[in-house]
Amino acid sequence: MATEDVGGTVAEPDEAVVEAFLTAFVAGDADRMSDLVTDDCVLHRPRWPLDTEGRAAIVELTEGNEGSFADVTVTVEQSVRSGDRIAAYATASGHNVGPMRMEGREIAPTGRRFEVPQFGIYRVEGGRIAETWVLADALGIVEQLDNLPTGPSAMTRIAVRQLRWRLGGRQRLH
């Protein structure tokens, strides 16, 4: 497949919708996400066994991040277009102030900042995301938020933080 050369960057409106999509997802802004995707949007993520299909499912997935991160910014560092697809390399950053929800579990907030690269291909229809393939540095997020058990002392530290958070009423960090 040939790539159309558009000077190294994507047209401003399409780049803006990609940034808005990523920002809404990381920030857990379900209302904004609902406006950014088509009814039949598909989210492909290689680390999960199933695709997320349809606006309602993607909005529900986005709600899982609500309250987890503050000061979220996403910057599309580089992008290129081929037909109706945009390939974008972006950096997301934020501050972990609330629990991270993963597969029915809640992980206690750490109060730490993260900055993580991600790469995606986004198919855009009528100014909305219709399909996306996203690969983010999940291990990088876990390491930066100090949630990676790398030995007995780290495992103990994480377990104690998790226990304190659960017993302390699961308060959001400021």
Short characterization:
This protein is α+β, with helices and mostly antiparallel strands. It has five helices and eight strands.
What does this structure look like?
The protein has 174 residues and is of the alpha+beta class. It has a single domain (12-167), classed as Roll (Nuclear Transport Factor 2, Chain: A). It is built from five helices and eight strands; from the N terminus they run ααββαββββββαα. Strands 2-1-8-7-4-3 form a six-stranded mixed β-sheet. The chain is elongated, with a radius of gyration of 17 Å. The model is unreliable at 1-10 (pLDDT under 50). Pfam families: SnoaL.
Question: What's the layout of helices and strands?
Answer:
Layout: H1 12-27, H2 30-36, E1 37-44, E2 52-53, H3 55-63, E3 69-82, E4 85-96, E5 100-102, E6 105-107, E7 113-125, E8 128-136, H4 138-144, H5 152-167
Parallel strand pairs: 1-8
Antiparallel strand pairs: 1-2, 3-4, 4-7, 5-6, 7-8
Helix pairs in contact: 1-2, 2-3
Instruction: Specify Rg, calculated over alpha carbons.
Output: 17 Å
The number of helical segments is 5
Shape: elongated
CATH class bucket: Alpha Beta
CATH architecture: Roll
The arrangement of helices and strands along the chain is HHEEHEEEEEEHH
What portion of residues belong to β-strands?
Answer: 35-45%
Describe the main β-sheet briefly.
Answer: 6 strands, mixed
Q: Going across the major beta sheet, what is the strand order?
A: 2-1-8-7-4-3
Organism: Halobaculum magnesiiphilum
Pfam family, one: SnoaL
Protein name: Ester cyclase
